[in-house]
Amino acid sequence: MGIRLGPNRYGKAESRVVRIVRDTPRHEIRDLNVSTALYGDFAAAHTDGDQSQVLPTDTQKNTAFAFAKKYGVDSPEDYALVLGRRLFEATPAAHGAMVKVSEYAWDRIRVDGSGHDHAFVRRGGEVRTTAVHVSPGRTSVDSGLRELVVLKSTGSEFKGFLRDEYTTLAEADDRILATELQADWRYSRFDDIDWNASYASVRAVLLATFATTYSRALQETLYLMGKAVLEAHDEIDLISFKAPNKHHFLVDLEPFGLDNPGEVFIAADRPYGLIEATVVRDGEPS
Ligand SMILES: O=c1[nH]c(=O)c2[nH]c(=O)[nH]c2[nH]1
């Protein structure tokens, strides 16, 4: 029985690239975690110890830093596209290059009512992401966010569910709905997109929809959020969610002679329901 090399790729993971724009006293900061990978005809490196076609991961890392200087970081997407194209073109054996970027946001520290020129505080909350794939047939851009933690203290129920002999869950007419949202959306085109504006708008649509729609289940809320994004953004044809249901259980305060009409909860960290869904524009492959 023969043995052969299966799928493989290689690259530099998690280069922490911080770009400061300091052309004026008012500095700007972009803080990125960059991972690159190449795939293609790299069999000889695995089977013959032949590195002649291997662009070192060290070079990939160097390019990530050099391009932050050379081209700046207008958006994670623009940066990932130019980096991905370069790595692909620099490596004849490559069939494709992938660049993944997570961006950590910083806000200006407010002093006497205005934002400081060069002192920043890391914004809590979500991480912005993009994944760019460069290959001869197709370039794709998937952007998204992670760790967007949201909660609504009413406007959510869960009832009418299937029951069997192991079901103990009580129907909930009015519960807390909370999740730590992961969303990834796919751009159908990428030549004329204002990436930063598109990100800000998708985020705003997700939050507004979460806030203003009544929830009969997290599944319904995810679907409504995805639908709202696709309705508002014709440049996006698919959005996927991964949403842990961060359960909040009402605490029984009766032993202490206290009532508890939806006021005191225990936030359970695990286990959690994990709801995943993709919302797709009609006619698009999912
Ligand atoms: O929104 C919910 N969806 C479920 O599928 C589910 N299952 C469960 O126990 N609680 C919930 N809540």
UniProtKB/TrEMBL annotation:
It holds the Pfam family Uricase. GO terms for biological process: purine nucleobase metabolic process; urate catabolic process. O2 binds at residues 57, 245. The keyword Oxidoreductase applies. It is an enzyme of class 1 (oxidoreductase). One of its GO terms (molecular function) is urate oxidase activity. It comes from the Bacteria. Pathway: Purine metabolism; urate degradation; (S)-allantoin from urate: step 1/3. Its EC number is 1.7.3.3. Urate binds at residues 57-58, 158, 175, 219, 245. PROSITE patterns: URICASE. It catalyses: urate + O2 + H2O = 5-hydroxyisourate + H2O2. Keywords: Oxidoreductase, Purine metabolism. The active site is at 12 (charge relay system), 57 (charge relay system), 247 (charge relay system). PANTHER family: URICASE. Belongs to the uricase family. Catalyzes the oxidation of uric acid to 5-hydroxyisourate, which is further processed to form (S)-allantoin. This is Uricase. It comes from Nocardioides eburneiflavus. The gene is pucL.
